Amino acid sequence: MLRLPTFTYHRPQTAAEAVALASEHGREAMYVAGGTDLYPNMKRRQQTPTHVISLQDLPGIGAVEVHPQGGVRIGAMTKLSTIEHHPHLRQHFPAFAHAVREISTPLLRNMGTIGGNLLLDTRCSYYDQSHEWRESIDFCMKKDGAICWVAPGSPRCWAVQSSDTVPVVCAMECDVELVGKNGPRRLRASELYRDDGIQYLTKQPEELLTYLYLPPATGFKASYLKLRRRDSFDFPVLGVAACVWTGVDGVVTKANIRLGGAGSYAIPASESEKLLVGSKLTDEVIAAAGTAAMKPARTMDNTDGDVYWRKKVAPVFVARAIAACR
Amino acid sequence: MAFVGAFTRRPDADAKVRGAARYVADLDVPDAWLGGTVRADVARGRLVRIDRDPGFDFTRVVVVTAADIPGRNVVALITDDQPLLAQDAIEHHGEPIALVAAPDRATLLAALAALRPVIAARTPCFDMEASAVVWKRIAIDRGDVDAVWAKAHRVVEGTFHTGSQEQMYIEPQGCVAWPPDRHGVVVVRGSLQCPYYVQKALMAALDLPAERARVVACTVGGGFGGKEDYPSVIACHAALLARAAGRPVKLLFDRHEDLAVTPKRHPCRVWHRTAVAADGTLLAMDIDVRMDGGAYTTLSPVVLSRGVLHATGPYRCANVRVRGAVVATNHVPYGAFRGFGAPQTCFAVERQMDRIATELGMHPVALRRHNALAPGDRTATGQLLDDSVAAHAVLDAVVAETGCARMPWRTQKRGRRRRGFGVSLFWHGAGFTGSGETKLKSRVAAAVLADGRVEVAAAATEIGQGTEAMLRAIAADSLGCGAADVALTEPDTGRAPDSGPTVASRTCMIVGGLVAQACRQLRDRVGGDEARPFRDRAAAFVRDGGDGRVEVEYHAPPGIVWDEANYRGDAYPVYGYGADVVEVEVDVATFAVKVLRFCTAIDVGRAIQPGLVRGQIEGGSLQALGFGHLEVVTTQAGRLRQDRMATCIIPTAVDAPPMRVLLVERPFQHGPFGAKGVGEMPADGGAPALAAAIEDAIGIAVDAVPATPERLLAAWLQTHPEEAL
User: Fold this and answer.
1) What's the pLDDT at B725?
2) Domains along chain B?
3) Which terminus of chain B has fewer Cβ atoms in its 10 Å neighbourhood, N or C?
């Protein structure tokens, strides 16, 4: 029987109050937005906060605001389904709206929030298991254990970044706003993440994600392509976000390619980006960029899909994502 | 006929749609405790002892071990080899060792954690090819295959594998049991397909006579075979706990436990060697079938039986040798799943037919049409097919609908996304195999109530497939009354006679046939002027002291003879026939398979409720397509790797292709209104047609399912080694 453990539930009315509660309870506390990731994890004892701080009453962070200059500010508590169906986002940020639509099921998107998806726990086939299952292998270092079962000699955890939106917001150079003990701060979304399966976020535990800022949708084209077993719903085995800036002559001036589901953070495919800049998006250039993309990826046997197959199909997938930016 | 063949509203629909239906977990049972199971954490071993954590106060709970079983420590089914609770030998991961009942969930979880079985591990066997323990062997011989090989134009060989598959019924398994009442009667209510199977198991475990073991099926949230045998385990466990606790006990599985320990489809390997003439005539079929039965016999002998009896496919062949074996391993016992052995052997024979077509340069439709069974032909067991033979009719129907007979087969395709088509032709015996129905002697009763309505009493369970609507339509038309004038009893061993288990595509043909027979007798007995409503006449008949109750028993149709010892004769009273056409698009970079179109023609004899029959066909076909390319069920050290719905995946509505369902109706003279069976047949043809379509699209042999992208890539690299990393 998978049941929630006992915990104290808090409903702060302001961000400052929420941060104060989180600071007070430290490692025992976690924020909950839609609860679609945290509560199942709690049932499996992957995350075991004794204080759960609900963000549902916080004012002003549940809406999509379009700015006259073209940028968009999205409150962290905005439901994924709101974003998915938002006409302005669908028209001007199709890659982002598409990535949101690729998350799980309509039911989950009606509960899940953009903030929760941006902070989604990393995943691993040795970690996303019931307590009894993990206990039978003496646990892993991400929770309750000492070893990484994917790479037993490894000093670090290799759990996988599995959010569909993270590669896109990193590639599109979006910003996020955090509220901490000293008030708000704004940073690049890509600076929020780090290459570690356990400490996959750079923010302080009590820091609260409040907003996502999309830049004005001019000068670039972006895409997101998701590899998974079923078209209906599954976590990404590979999620490629590409964002390409081109001049009037069709020559690429800047390119960001991020690989989700391939490591503990959305990995930049730097070699591919270099190959694209200064060139036109010809089939040859795209194919070469695809082949170069997987060098930094850390494809390991800890997600759905056999490793060899994932390595084999990844360059093609990256090339298709880039081609979609033409 | 007002209701047979018409669309009528399901009697169970309203409550299910409104959420008012009471499934076992919804039952409000005052004072009930909750039950749980202590399980083995190794695949094979010897139970040394069960340690009790001294820190837990065991007076707060009730614990049951093998020593506390008043009757026999067996799950009484076919062979009494499976203990209810392990006593000494542990044969599979998750095997039940002890039971706990507690007043609340927290106490239950604490008690389960405080019981620690000490098990000395032994070396397990997981390889069915290496297993030396055989649960059942079957041989079928017709003609002399060995006299043919030298004369044949071609001899074609192939080996085919099918994986396991999870039923994934909507509602996990569970039972509630009450302790013996003042008459000594033990009552169990649960999510189950076969009340009388459970009763038999309870009688053995608790040493009870039949009248003191009462089993009632609740509203059931799907079964697909998964609730054929396993509810006997849960019911006995719950009843043992209730007896020990002196109060009702609810034993409800969550999805995780359900996935980990309940039976799934048998993994299977089939080898074929076929001799063919230049024109495609099948001269000899030599077939070897091996199935992994898992740790105990359970239903494996009958699964194997249905498997080998369908191994030749619906094809005419004068010389046949079939050898079948189902063997022991230390996997969780495999069991019943829609199709019951036939989807495995159907996959093999259909892939073999495509292989033969490719070798001969024949179109797969032409090869099938050339060999398909027709009236007057005999099967491998020598059964003469003289009634309701629709192999050609179903094939013609899908060919006319899709034009697949003109589609080129195995031509070289180009481009990133390549399309292909596949066809399958299949059959499915309706009802129990061999003399099963004759031995079972199913009974059904129909009785006039005081208000003139008729109550039909049968143990057939409504598990979502539409049993209630179907039986009611048959009863109403047999009586000549309105559907609302027919009441159906709950499937309750205390009230309904044993009409047999709800399995084997038998509910319509066998139980429905008995309902029709009983109702016709009642109609004759009530008599009177048929211009007057039946209900008025029936009410008057019983008011005047007439005997308004009829009970009938099954007798095999005349001329049906089965020789169990030699596997000769009439294996089934009749067969249903089906043909599928699948069109796919395969991405040769990712090997993702998209099913573009699915067309199926199914011969059910007569569709009693056409809407429900179509629903059965669509659902079963989607399960078959999932079996074909999506559903991976594997084990590691004997333990299921896909033990959650996040990893044990099935196709969703979004993943379902557009489906065209063609009903073909070739009435069977001994079926009610001509009906045969429908439940299992749609599970047979999807996987081989899908595999054929993939093969046609990308030109690689697809001899194993599920044909996952990983498997397709591996097969592709065999013929395209230059593309390897």
Assistant:
1) 83
2) 13-21+436-553 (3.30.365.10), 31-124+171-256 (3.30.365.10), 268-433+568-724 (3.30.365.10)
3) C
> What string of DSSP letters covers A229-290?
S-SSS---SEEEEEEEEE-TTSBEEEEEEEEETSSSS-EE-HHHHHHHTTSB--HHHHHHHH
List the single residue in B with minimal CA-CA distance to A4: B106
A20 touches chain B (CB under 8 A): no
The answer on pLDDT for B108 being more than 90 is yes
Distance (Å) from the alpha carbon of B651 to chain A's nearest alpha carbon: 7
Q: Which residues of chain A have pLDDT under 70?
A: 1
Contacts of B590 in chain A (CB under 8 A): 227, 313, 316-317
Percent of chain B topping pLDDT 70: 100
Tokens 């994934």 found at? B168
Report the candidate in A211, A258, A236, A19 with the shortest Cα–Cα distance to residue A114.
A211
Nearest residue in B to A314, CA atom: B590
| Contact partners, residue B355, CB within 8 Å, separation at least 6 | B156, B158, B701
Whether residue A68 sits in one domain with residue A49: no
Q: Six-digit token pair at A45?
A: 């004892």
Q: Looking at the complex, does the CB of residue B585 fall below 8 Å from at least one CB of chain A?
A: no
Which ipTM was obtained for this model?
0.87
Mark yes or no for CB contact A2/B41 under 8 Å: no
Interface residue B647 vs chain A (CB under 8 A): yes
CB B321 within 8 A of CB B145: yes
Q: What DSSP character marks residue B605?
A: S
Render pLDDT for B656-674 as a digit per residue (tens, 0 to 9): 999 999 999 999 999 999 9
* Contact residues, chain B, for A136 at CB < 8 Å: 41
Residue by residue, DSSP assigns B295-323 as SS-TTHHHHHHHHHHTTT-SB--SEEEEE
**Which of A3, A136, A232 lies nearest to residue B652, judging by beta carbons?**
A232
Is the pLDDT reported for residue B474 higher than 70?
A: yes
Mean pLDDT on B610-637: 97
